[in-house]
Amino acid sequence: MLKGYVPPYNATVVQKLLDQGAILMGKTNLDEFAMGSGSTDGVFGPVKNPWSYSKQYREKRKQKPHGEKEDSNWLITGGSSGGSAAAVAAFTCFAALGSDTGGSTRNPAAHCGVVGFKPSYGLVSRHGLIPLVNSMDVPGILTRCVDDAALVLGVLAGHDPKDSTTVQDPVKPFTLPTLTDVSKLCIGIPKEYLAPELSSEVRSFWSKAANLFESEGAKVIEVSLPHTSYSIVCYHVLCTSEVASNMARFDGLEYGHRCDIDVSTEAMYAATRREGFNDVVRGRILSGNFFLLKENYENYFIKAQKVRRLIANDFVNVFNSGVDVLLTPTTLSDAVPYLEFIKEDNRTRSAQDDIFTQAVNMAGLPAVSVPVALSNQGLPIGLQFIGRAFRDQQLLTIAKWFEKQVQFPVIQLQELMDDCSSVFEIEKLGSVSLKQ
Amino acid sequence: MAAPMLRWCCLGRRWVLACIDGGSRHGRGAAIGFTSSRKRGQSSVAQQPLITAQKSRKGEHKWAAVVGLEIHAQISSNSKLFSGSQVHFAAPPNSLVSFFDASLPGTLPVLNRRCVEAAVMTGLALSCRINKKSLFDRKHYFYADLPAGYQITQQRLPIAVNGSLAYSVCAGKKPSQVITKTVRIKQIQLEQDSGKSLHDELRSQTLIDLNRAEGQLRVDANISVHHPGEPLGVRTEVKNLNSARFLAKAIDSEIERQIHELENGREILNETRSFDYKLGCTMPMRDKEGKQDYRFMPEPNLPPLLLYDTASLPPGADPQQVINIDWIRERLPELPSETREKLVQQYGMLPEHSFALLNEVGLLEFFQNVIKETRAEPKKVTSWVLNIFLGFLKQQNLAVNESPVTPTALAELLSLLDRKAISSSAAKQVFEELWRSKGKTPSQIVSEKRLELMQDEEALERVCHAVMEGHPQVVMDVKRGNSRAINKLIGLVRKATLSRADPTVIKEILEKKLSS
């Protein structure tokens, strides 16, 4: 739909980075209109997870049956901001921006072994972010370590007069303190997040992380977010409704793709939108318009808003009871191969994969996925921390402490580098460590 | 996006319908007195049952009509409601379009403070309750002049509700039979305007101008008929009426049409119609399904609009960021009702005159300027301004500011009249001359045309005497008690003086002579 469209202005977040001297290296691939959890439904094709080519993964795969071509079973990055996660994971850039509406920054971060940060709603401007769900979208930050994420946040956060949903309070750039003592912290483990589909590996790492905090003196308690089971459906109703509304502007008239039909305005609109949108987008538009019909509005949209309020209140209640951050999985498992991923349709996948991440968007809270360790397959697994609204600094501080504890290994793309050494001529890239 | 608009909701016009047979016309409700300010309001409508009509020829039941008006008015501001782009009347097409106006992806609406203030002012002027919290919604439909595919408006909780407007209606033929009626204002809401479409039939294309500074008032009328005591009838919407006169005509004809359809056993469709000025009747507009589902949804990019008054203002609030209703109320200009009241008190004029003075753009100012410069009595000035001056204007379809006669000129003329330097009929002649030829003062015209009244009373007495002598029969008639005969004498004297004598004085002299 936006083929050939060159925006005549910069998003606020982009402009802020440019103003600080950042160099824009390029734009990354994603699921079309940020709808998806695999970064497989984009017009430029699917995104490949760099870990598919890592030494860590390939070593483990040597035990697998031969006869497969090296590259045929590459892994997805997760999504929808998979391109950004891959770019950061492959050391092509210092940081990348993504979007996060239901987990689109945190999900690929977990699969690609990088830090994926979702700021509090209202902290970072959405001016220039093509909206998916206006009331849940935030720009996301992807980096290789938590300090980098904090650095970028310090540049991006703050009121923007062009975005009426940003808060007025002034924000200054900050450096994260180095936490040494976690004994005053209270970590909450939401019991409803122990989903049956959760892989045993992720569950195990989740447990280990909880134990780690406890052993270092923090208080770790089980908490309840009772309305968790309704959040997928609620999210679906609200998301598709807003999508239907936000996509209404794509009609081929003012910018972007326009079909060849010029018999009538309506015919042009219809053909343009059929051609310009993929099935996923069209499906959501149709659903959303259904929910917004007069006869359905009360039963679906209003109801979903009420459920959303309940979900948000769940978090408020938990934080009010003394919990500082929540610790949960980010994804159900490590990254799956593309061929396996596409066996299910986008909607099913999204519903499954967003399970730990999307309630956070509904509540507008800050959350971050931190890479923890490699799975048995040699692939990254991340865990999520969820903080109180506008306590992004505190959240990142705790995440930084955790990151230091787990010492997640650097991706080893040495072989790949060696294969292309004549092109790159970079030595020992793989031995760059996380910490300075 | 769009030029900012206010919408008012007007309730329930009262219609008295005459007989439907033979095309005799309806008792007419007066045009709603639109004030002359540049601000206009837009109303959405609710309906209220009305007084009944008289019987139709077939001896059928009586009919009552229910009318509601939706008035779209553009706020006078420098920039648009949600985007920073400017508002200019008659700018070249698409020259005042920001990224937001063109609905480029990623752009967000930002509320214009001046527009909110204007809405609050309008709400206060129309005696509405200002909602301290109001919300914005999206109204979705696809049309080429709506780039985003939705319009941002205030459907659920608008900025002002439950107001009223008093206006005058001529109840009968005489100008003095004026009664005051009230119309309810259901709500006032801020909303985006859509672009302008120009349909080019020849090339089968439509051109869109996204500037949206129309500068025009637009009214949609919702009309239904029913029998009193029964439920309200199906309503139709007549859209895009641009003048008060056509509005009245359109409503009249639609009421007629509906009654006619219903009396012939047909049904009224809930549809949108337009008014064909040439044919003088309404025509269906959209040939599609009757109802549009606009899929209203809250506008997620605009938080609720919170307004404060002095009591509820948070301490230390940044005045740039908050709007204080009380502050705005204090700065409201004098409202028409107050002005009219003052006119009645100060000048002793009749209420209907005060309405008339305010109903014409610039007329009040003209009147006040004349009053300032003349010693003539206010009643005289009123009469001259409303009857003669206004009459001339209307005849030539001119606005007050296009008048060839200045307030100074009229003031001078009325002073001459007041001093009895000229007669009333002479004054009218002078006025005509003033209208026709620029640059001449009344005094000049008077002396040119030798219209001065005879000041010499002795000379006048001599003329009267002469006329009396010359017409003994008439004198006899008068003495016999024929009251009209004296007018004949007066006429003769006037003729003899070439209309340069004041008839009142003539009468006095004659009466004196006749009684002696």
TrEMBL record, chain A:
The active site is at residues 80, 104. It comes from the Eukaryota. GO terms for cellular component: glutamyl-tRNA(Gln) amidotransferase complex; mitochondrion. It catalyses: L-glutamyl-tRNA(Gln) + L-glutamine + ATP + H2O = L-glutaminyl-tRNA(Gln) + L-glutamate + ADP + phosphate + H(+). One of its GO terms (molecular function) is glutaminyl-tRNA synthase (glutamine-hydrolyzing) activity. Residues 55-74 are annotated as: Disordered. Its main location: mitochondrion. GO terms for biological process: glutaminyl-tRNAGln biosynthesis via transamidation; mitochondrial translation. Gene3D superfamilies: Amidase signature (AS) domain. Residues 1-54, 76-396 form the Amidase domain. The keyword DNA-binding does not apply. It holds the Pfam family Amidase. Keywords: ATP-binding, Ligase, Mitochondrion, Nucleotide-binding, Protein biosynthesis. InterPro entries: Amidase, Amidase_dom, AS_sf, GatA. It is found in: Mitochondrion. The keyword ATP-binding applies. Subunit of the heterotrimeric GatCAB amidotransferase (AdT) complex, composed of A (QRSL1), B (GATB) and C (GATC) subunits. Allows the formation of correctly charged Gln-tRNA(Gln) through the transamidation of misacylated Glu-tRNA(Gln) in the mitochondria. The reaction takes place in the presence of glutamine and ATP through an activated gamma-phospho-Glu-tRNA(Gln). Belongs to the amidase family. GatA subfamily. This is Glutamyl-tRNA(Gln) amidotransferase subunit A, mitochondrial. It comes from Ursus americanus. The lineage of its organism: Eukaryota, Metazoa, Chordata, Craniata, Vertebrata.
Automatic annotation (TrEMBL), chain B:
It catalyses: L-glutamyl-tRNA(Gln) + L-glutamine + ATP + H2O = L-glutaminyl-tRNA(Gln) + L-glutamate + ADP + phosphate + H(+); L-aspartyl-tRNA(Asn) + L-glutamine + ATP + H2O = L-asparaginyl-tRNA(Asn) + L-glutamate + ADP + phosphate + 2 H(+). It comes from the Eukaryota. Its EC number is 6.3.5.-. GO terms for cellular component: glutamyl-tRNA(Gln) amidotransferase complex; mitochondrion. Keywords: ATP-binding, Ligase, Mitochondrion, Nucleotide-binding, Protein biosynthesis, Transit peptide. GO terms for molecular function: asparaginyl-tRNA synthase (glutamine-hydrolyzing) activity; ATP binding; glutaminyl-tRNA synthase (glutamine-hydrolyzing) activity. It is an enzyme of class 6 (ligase). SMART domains: GatB_Yqey (SM00845). One of its GO terms (biological process) is mitochondrial translation. It is found in: Mitochondrion. Residues 365-514 form the Asn/Gln amidotransferase domain. The keyword rRNA processing does not apply. Pfam families: GatB_N (PF02934), GatB_Yqey (PF02637). PANTHER family: GLUTAMYL-TRNA GLN AMIDOTRANSFERASE SUBUNIT B MITOCHONDRIAL AND PROKARYOTIC PET112-RELATED, GLUTAMYL-TRNA(GLN) AMIDOTRANSFERASE SUBUNIT B, MITOCHONDRIAL. Belongs to the GatB/GatE family. GatB subfamily. Allows the formation of correctly charged Gln-tRNA(Gln) through the transamidation of misacylated Glu-tRNA(Gln) in the mitochondria. The reaction takes place in the presence of glutamine and ATP through an activated gamma-phospho-Glu-tRNA(Gln). Subunit of the heterotrimeric GatCAB amidotransferase (AdT) complex, composed of A (QRSL1), B (GATB) and C (GATC) subunits. This is Glutamyl-tRNA(Gln) amidotransferase subunit B, mitochondrial. It comes from Ursus americanus.
